Each structure stands twice: as C-alpha cells, then as structure tokens.
Amino acid sequence: MTRRSYTIYAVGITSAVLLTVGIGLFVGQVFTTLMQNRLKKELILVEGSRVFESWKRPPPPVYMQYFFFNVTNPDEIAAGEKPVLNQVGPYTYREYRYKDNVSMVENGTKVSAYNTKSFVFLREKSVGDPSVDNITTVNIPAWAVMTKLKGNFWKASMVSIWMNSLGSGIFTTLTVDELLWGYEDPLLARLAPSYPDVEPYFGLMYKKNGSNDGEFIYHTGEQNYMDYGRVETWKGQRSLNFWTSNQSNSINGSDGSAFHPMLEKNERLYIFTPDLCRSIYMEFEKDVEVKGIPAYRFTPPRSVLASKEENPANEGFCVTPQECLGTGLLKVSPCRKGAPVVASFPHFFLGDEKYVMDIDGMYPQREHHQTFLDLNPTTGVIVRASKRAQINILFSRISGFPKTRQLKEMIFPVMFLNESVVIDDASAARVQKLLLIVTLVSNFPLIIVGLGAILLLVLIILLVRARNQQTTTADDTSYSAVSDKEKEDPQNGTYIGLTAKSDPQD
C-alpha cells in the first residue's frame, strides 16, 4: 500500500470519527448541559462566587427620578371642578444601594441582609433646585387625619376648627425638598402630644435616605438554582398580614435585584416590593439588546393591578368589599397607617380610562410610564431596568369637614417616580466575555462537526486526484515489441520490451 493510500485511509477514518462524535455530542446536548450546570454552581449567593460581591454592592449606577403634579386650579377643584395638573420634573438623585449586615444562615443555604439606600441630588440631570422650587399639591397629612376621623363627627369637627386656625387646607404649597424628605406639619404637630403614634414630620421619602426596609433572608440558590435570590422571609415573617387572602399576603420571588440563570420566555417572574406592600409578577414581552448583550424584556401585565371583576385573584387586595378600586389601582392604606394612599403606574398607565379622564394632564404612554426588566436569559443579570410607580390620594367628601363638601370623588395624582439602571461598560464587558465562553463551549460539538466536514472535503479531493492520476497513467503507458521478432532470453525465456508509444507519422 502506497503512502498516498495511507493518507486517504487516515483522512477518511478521522473525518468519520469527528462527524460521528460531533453529531452525537450535539444531539445529546452534552456540552450545553455541562455549561449550564457550571453556571448553576457558580451563580450562587455565597462568599467567593462569581456574583456575590456585585450582589452586595451593585456596580451600575442607579438613578431615582421624581416627577410632581403641580395643581394649577386649587380653588376651582374645591368648588367641584375638574383638576388641571402640570407635570414638573425630573428631580434626579443618584441612588447608592448596598446590602448591609450580610451573614450566612441555615448552614449556608440562605443569606441574611438589609437593603440600605442613600440618595445624592444631581443638579445636571434635574429641571431645577429642589430647595427652591415650589409645588402645589394635595395636603397628604390633612387627608390622612380627616380619613382617620371619618365617622367620628365630634372629633372631626374639632380637628376642622384646628385646621382653620392653623391654615391647613386640602392643598398645600411646599418645596420639592420638603415634600420628599420631610417638613414639620402644623396639624401633625398639634396632634402629636395627644397621640404617641403620630409624628409631627411628614415627607414622601421621610427617613428613607440612608435607611433600609428591614431584614431579608434570601435563598442562595446552592440547593436549587431556581431559588437563587428568592426571598424566604421579610422582617422575620414568611407572609404579610395587610390583605384579606393568603394568596395576596404571600411573599413571592426575589426583591428585584437578582434572578436565576437559564430564564425561559414562558416564565412568570415574581418580585416582592415593600413599597407596594405586596408581590407582583412580570411576563415576557419581547427580545431586546443592551450594549451588545441579548436580553428578554419582562413587564407587569394589566392583570397585576386589575379589578376583582377582571381578575378574581385580586379580590384579596380589597381593603374591604366597599373599598375595592378599579383596574390600575392598589390602595396601600393598610401598610400606610390608614392614610388614603393609592398606588398606580404613572399617568394611570394600564388603568381604567375613567381615572385618566377625571384629571386634566394625564397622558399615559408605554415608552415613558411602563415598568420593565431587561434580563440576560443565560445569566439572569439585569442589563437594564425601570421601576415606575405613582402615588395618589383618594379624594372624597368626608363628613365633619366642610372643605370637602363640594369635592368630586376621584383618584388624585401627587407624584410618580422612575428608578432606573443600565449596566455599566465594565460589567457589560464581563458579561459578554462569559457569554462568549458559554457560546464556544456549548457549540464545541459543531466545531468538531465542522472539522469533520472539512476533512471529508479533503478526502473527496484526494480521491478525485488519485482517480485522475490513475487514468492519466493508464492512457500514457502501453507496450510494443522491440523488433518484429520477439527476443528470447536463453535463461528467462521470451520477454517483451516496453517502449512509449510513437506517432505513426514520426
């Protein structure tokens, strides 16, 4: 057997082996499974893991924007006319968040932490100076007191007299700083000595700068990757006690800062948010890309804040059967000391049309008012997110308070916030590198198949060239007698002498 034959046989066998092994590995998803198992083991909340430090102190900058609804016709509203509001904002703050007092519990299967947040004002990203700009809005402390005294005519009449003497009306004008971070309210200051649970100060973000929401205990994901970042308890409780059903009081999902790897489009992601005093869920909307990283966009569907008629599962969020609001609203008074506070998406996005029509100045738009999460499905990393929520006050007539006599019942917007984050370049580069490794390892069987296909092509070329060479040799070689009479060798007998063919004409 010639060297050429050995080469052909070697190329053929190698090609067949590579093709067989590669196709087998690809069909069996061996390397994909191997890579996924590796990720599941590395993406856990324990010391030394790939994600633990970034979970404790997220590197991407988080921005908190506040938009206020300035009341332009307070006297007309008090007389029963339609409110005319003007949106003012944003007032932007850099939000610094980190996990404090982190400790492993239950043999390292869970981790305890406090979510601490602090805010620093950014003038260059804001429309004005919060210490100077005034906003006319609903007098929330007055409404809280009036609502608390509903049905108690004598106390209501006494507080009504106090409000007149103190100049406290149903609307107030304050600076953005006062509305956000707190001010001494004259009515609350008057009530505080007689009621120990009443603080004289009020602010939408009062005592929230540099504070936390209480202790969280999370699953590390070591036992089951699907539990990565899932909240086990909050303030020592496995469920809430604000609502009227076990389903509504359940604490589900993560706190919104961590999601398990290997996400699927058909998943429903649950997030527990103390600000809303409940868990919400998000569903897949579309594929997106952020800084070259593929992601799934998850958003809360309309059913999350739907009325009990539209979504019977939401009946547990009714404070009472008489206090069950329509689609797009959530009355959070049970966890706001009874204050008539109503949460919604900005501009009543995904809510009933009547709430938009009751107010002049509401223009719901998906682009500006939708809450969303863009998650890389392989790692579960947040590459972009925006949490948007609106604070409203339930307006209605309250007996014992003449100032409310002519008011129309409505949901009155006060302010909405936009908490947003986009992955920073350094973190994006790390994610891209990890995804490249995952892609290469997962596609290794295809690389083997590709090499096998190349060798198969080489084999075909070698076979064709060998065949052509044999044909050429056969055509160029013949035999003829050396003379008319065959020569005889005395020892070896007759032989035939081979000569090249000659042209008869030569």
TrEMBL record:
Q: Does the keyword Glycoprotein apply?
A: yes
Q: Which UniProt keywords apply?
A: Glycoprotein, Membrane, Transmembrane, Transmembrane helix
- Which InterPro entries does the record cross-reference, listed alphabetically? CD36_fam, LimpII
Please give the start and end residues of each transmembrane region: 6-31, 434-464
Keyword match Methyltransferase: no
Pfam families this protein is in?
A: CD36
Q: A Gene Ontology MF term for this entry?
A: scavenger receptor activity
Q: Which residues form the signal peptide?
A: none
An example of a Gene Ontology cellular component annotation for this protein is: lysosome
A biological process (GO) of this protein is:
receptor-mediated endocytosis
Query: In which compartments does the protein localize?
Result: Membrane
Region Disordered: start-end pairs? 474-506
Please give the family membership noted in the entry: Belongs to the CD36 family.
Q: What is this protein called?
A: Lysosome membrane protein 2-like isoform X2
Which species is listed as the source?
A: Scomber scombrus
